Structure formats: structure tokens, C-alpha cells
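Incident review: delayed structure delivery

Summary: a single-chain prediction request sat in the queue longer than the usual turnaround. Root cause was a stuck worker, restarted by the on-call engineer. No data loss occurred. The affected request and its eventual output are reproduced below so the record is complete for anyone auditing the incident later.

Affected input:
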Amino acid sequence: MKKVIINADDFGLSKGVNEGIILAHQKGILTSTSLMANMPGFAHAVELAKKNVKLGVGIHLNIVRGRPLSPVNRVSSLLDKDKNFFSNIFIILRKLWSKKINKQEIELEFRAQIEKILKNKIQISHFDSEKHIHCLPSLLKIVLKLGKEYNIKRIRYINEYCITPRLLQSAKTIFASLSCLSMKEKIIEDGILKPDRSYGIGRSGQMTSPRIKKILSNLKDGVTEIMVHPGFVTQELMDLEKEIGSFYINRYREKELKALLDQDIKKIISDKEIGLINFNQL
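Output delivered after worker restart:
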């Protein structure tokens, strides 16, 4: 059986992003999303999630953008001089490798984000993260520990090897895939469920109708996650960029939303008897 999870990142970022995600679920092929607990659209996203009970909602763990949920004096190694996350994945990686970031503080902030979602009575379907930082083995160990504690038994597992004209994005995709591969045995040992393969990082922002149709037309047996970033680009979102750093994906959100609403894609899914699922159904 060929099964597909179509997951939208960044739920909770802004009202426009939230509304695009819900439209893609109600009128299109979107089955799953991942919620950012520390972003201004959080309460709006929770309200929408409770009205759309078939939409799987995971947690988009975030120590990259915005402000922490934890007291700033308890996660100071994660923050810049303005008490914000660094907003730059390369700064974070450098600080991790030089041991200038305290991993206990990462666990504390991850825990705060999980608990905020749970307190709002949202069942967390799975783990993923901003900039896929959960794939780093040292951080994945933290996530697996929290998965046991909070009974969250599913995770985004990146298994995507591709070379595209965007060489930096290609390198990022392969690095994330190799990081996940290095932890595969531990993930399985801990009883965590995962998709077999993934798409959407190497071509992030370019998940157009033709690309999604090609993926679905050549789908292998098992479970595949397709990661997308739909949404409406509003003034609220543009203003938010000034606070938390630019999102290159913003210029593509409405194009990806259009693709998810393409009725021809629904026909391919029906003709090829592909099962649309969310992480809860793994």
C-alpha cells in the first residue's frame, strides 16, 4: 500500500499562514501540520485545529526564531543580546559544535513548547522542527527522551538524497538525511514510528503542482512524507519577518498553497489508490 503524509510546517506563525494551511486541508490534499508554540499565531492555530479534527497536528520544535517560552535567564545560551533566538542556523550549529550552547537549556525549552501545546488540549501527532534541527544526533537524543516522557511516538525522519541547482539546500538535505540515518537504530529501538522516505527539503518552496504530481506518480510502497509550506502572505507576516528574521519561503507560500488545491492531484491520488494519512495513522 502506498501512503502519503502531506505536512505543512509553520502552523501558528501568523493568521495568514494558519488560514492557508486550513484551506489546503479542507479543500485540498493536506493531511498534517506542525505547530509552533512560541509564535504570535499560536492561539489562532489552536482554535482552527479544534475545528478541524481530522488534521494531524505535530509540534514544530523551535530554537531558531522568536523568543523562548522558558524564562530567559534559564535558556541564556540559546539567545542573542536582545533575548531572542539567533535566527541563523549556522550560528546555532557553530555554537553547538563549540559547546557554547547548553543542551540542558534546549531540553528545557523543548519541554516548555510541548507542555504549552498539551495544555491547550492539542494531541501532538509527531515531532519535527524549524530548520530540521531535531535531526542532529545530540538533539535527537533529547527529542527521543521527551517522546518517551510525553508519549509522542512519531517523528519526521528525513530520507531524501538529491542534488538540485540550489547546492546549499542540497547539502542541507543530504546532511539531515545522514544525521537521521545515524540514529535510525536508536529511533527504532525506542519504538518511535517514522515515514519510510521524505520529499520537500531539497526543493523547499518549489513544491509546485508538476513536482507533486511527479512524486505521486512515481511513489514507492510504504509511507512517504511530503513537506510543504502553504499560506497567505499578509502584512502581518511581513512585519513578523522584521522581528524574527526573514523567511525565504514566504515568497513561495501561495504557490505551494495553489498546488495543494489542484484537483488534478486529487485524481492522481484516487487513480493510483494512494492513501492520504497523517502521523497518527502510522
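Verification: The CA atoms of residues 64 and 87 lie 5 Å apart.
Action items: add queue-age alerting; document worker restart procedure.
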